[in-house]
Amino acid sequence: MAEIIIEPLSRVEGEGGITIRTDGQKVKEVHFDILEGTRLIETLVIGKTPEEDVSITCRICAICTISHRYAALRGLEKALGIEVPPKAQALRTLMHLGELLESNSLHVFLLALPDFVGYPNAIAMAEKYGDDVLKALALKKYANRIMAVTSGRMIHGENPTVGGFGRYPDVQNLLDIKKQSEAMLPVADRAVELLAGISIPDFFESETVFMCCEPDAKEYGLVGDRIRISTGEVIPVEQYKELTNEKFVGHSAAKHCLFRGKPYTVGAIARMNNLGERMGGHAAKLFKKQWNKRWLVNPVFNNMAQAIEMVWALEQVPKIVDTILQYKEDPEIVKPTRTSGEGVGAVEAPRGVLYHWYRIQDGLVAAANLIIPTGQSLEDIEKYLRKAVEALLSRGADDQSIRMQSEIIARAYDPCISCATHLVKIEREIK
Amino acid sequence: MEKKKFDVGLYGFTGCNGDQLTIIHSEDKLLDFFGSANIKTFSLAKSDNDDSALDIAFIEGSISNQEQAEHVKEIRERSRFLVALGNCACNGGIQAMELGREGWDHRFQQVYGDAFLDNRTPIESKPIDMFVKVDFYMTGCPIDADQFLYCYGHFLRNELPVMPDYPVCAECRWKENECLLLKGILCVGPLTNAGCGARCPSHRLPCLGCWGVVNEANVAAEFDLLKEKGFTADDIKRRFRIHTGSGIMKPLKDILGVV
After folding, report:
1. Hey, is the C-beta of A61 within 8 angstroms of any chain B C-beta?
2. A87, B8, B42, B89: least buried by Cβ within 10 Å?
3. Mean pLDDT (whole number) for B193-221
4. A426 φψ region: left (φ > 0), alpha (ψ -120 to 50), beta (else)
């Protein structure tokens, strides 16, 4: 029996690896290993105030920090009977767009593209694609600025708090962000162009289920209290357990997610497959040109989905800045209307649906359950890895190309291992 | 003659990757950063990493299993100068907020049950100086990009940078913020190392202590002050412990007899 171990899987966020065990032409096992150290975050938020919870849970992950904060705020505010004013809501939308732009640009340009153009990293890639790398860094910087201006810091900014914001950004900063969005559009466009020139292997294609938040307005978006499934169903987020853990309900250790016993995929590709038709503007044109039915069966198109999503996000920024500026008064932080209650908040983190459920008792967190996008996609990552390895073995591929293709598939999911860790148990059989 | 470039490695243990990401976020200077030294290992950013001898090792994250403990010792052995990068490496981070108390086994079981990865032996999360000698501490959750580059420039010249050794209240005063303690808000600024620019109080929000406990912090005085303001010992202790890990253990034990 032969074994290929890729550890650590580089250019992903956190410590992970892939283990493939084969016997001749047969695949014995394929595991996407989560090797990151344990933090036991869910146990640490118990007994904390809602504000403290937000400061803790955002630190699950540096890349998805705003999504964690946002999901926590939505869950906690439901539990506490808080409704934030429209200006706070609009500023939250802007901070969330900033994170999406930052995360997608980091992944598309710096983590994923080097594989396809044959370099070990983006810095080396700069020798041939110097202009593109510099522009990508400029886009990332712009996205970071949005996060710094809205949340107070690039990473783990504490400004978005329970009931609103500590302080609203000044008008000039918001106008600068609005103005710059236009200059950044060609960079996102270039990402689409670069990815469009790459042929995506098809030997592991197979059907799956896609899930994403259903925005309240019938448009493309990143937040909602219902989940849209590619089967056509729309299910309230309160049923998050059935949506994610159906096979293992009540068993807190087993955190590979399944929907009705089947693997599913979340993230940009799920959002595009489920909601892409709803986009307008330049993003809609790109979507029409690039989308095809292979997106429904091949996760590597997630890279392109992320690129088109950057165009969409950049087109949203001016509109949302205008919305924020339309409210002249900065609203005060809204106080809780009750001290006990339950609530589940869901947002689209860059990598897909993120749920934060809380029970608050006498003003302190009594119970918490956080369900993370990468954990939800894990079964599908392994499914596609297995299919790829099977196909490659039957063609007599060598270890090096199995390794390369496996990394491309796993990396296309943009796995966020820091996030996934405290929720995922990997069962490995040793033979 | 051109000076030989330093060999530098960046490693991430348990945490959110926010410190390595802060470096990646210094976009304008990132290519210079990669050009200024031989970056031998930077797993978050590149895939052709190696494990050779290093002039400087930057370590992010806390140690939360035996394998990481071995790995950090191995890095120490081949590194001339070792820097703890960020609050998790320096103090243990949020995952060390219960450090020194009973109950880790029980909490681990609550999350993972009885089974776990067969190739990892989990332990309670601890800062790296509980395993290896640390030559320099750069705190923050996450670290500040400018402060990192300032320190890094010094290291490349074999010099030690001067770091703020006063509470964040100084930075808060420079910004002319209204003191939140005077308004009866539970702010741990007086205990917390400066360096962030008093970001949270500048947003009218209390400092939560994410830059760790400042040297010579007067923990007892802050404790008494907050009690006078009407906060309970539990409230105060809970807030002190969130981001301070190993840094607050001894002072709390001195004041309360327990951590």
Report:
1. yes
2. A87
3. 94
4. beta
Burial class (CB in 10 A: 0-12, 13-18, 19+), A335: exposed
DSSP labels, A149-211: HHHSSSSS---EETTEESSPPPHHHHHHHHHHHHHHHHHHHHHHHHHHTSPPP-TT----EEE
* Nearest neighbour of A40 by CB, restricted to B107, B196, B210: B107
Whole-structure pTM value: 0.93
What count of CB pairs under 8 Å joins A to B? Answer: 187
A430 with A366: CB under 8 angstroms?
A: no
Which residue is associated with the tokens 């400018």? B146
Give the structural domain span for A83: 50-199+318-337
CATH 3.40.50.700 for domain B7-156: yes
Domain ranges of chain B: 7-156, 168-256
The pLDDT tens digits of the residues spanning A369-412 come to 988 898 888 889 989 999 999 999 899 888 888 888 888 888 88
Residues of B in contact with A62 (CB under 8 A): 16-19, 21-22, 142
Of all residues in chain A, the one with the smallest CA distance to B116 is A425
Give chain A's mean pLDDT: 89
What type of residue sits at position B126?
K
Q: Does B63 reach chain A within 8 Å, measured CB to CB?
A: yes
**pLDDT (mean) for B29-49:** 82
Q: Is A179 part of any domain? A: yes
Q: How many domains are there within chain A?
A: 1
> How far apart are the C-alpha atoms of B256 and A110, rounded to whole Å?
49
Report d(CA B206, CA B141) in Å as an integer: 15
Q: What is the ipTM of this complex?
A: 0.94
Question: Residue B174 has which token pair?
Answer: 């420079």
> Is A145 within the bounds of a domain?
yes
CATH number of the domain bearing residue A323? 1.10.645.10
Which residues in chain A are contacts of B145 at CB distance < 8 A?
A: 154
**Residue A148 in domain:** yes
Q: Do B142 and A156 touch (CB under 8 A)?
A: yes
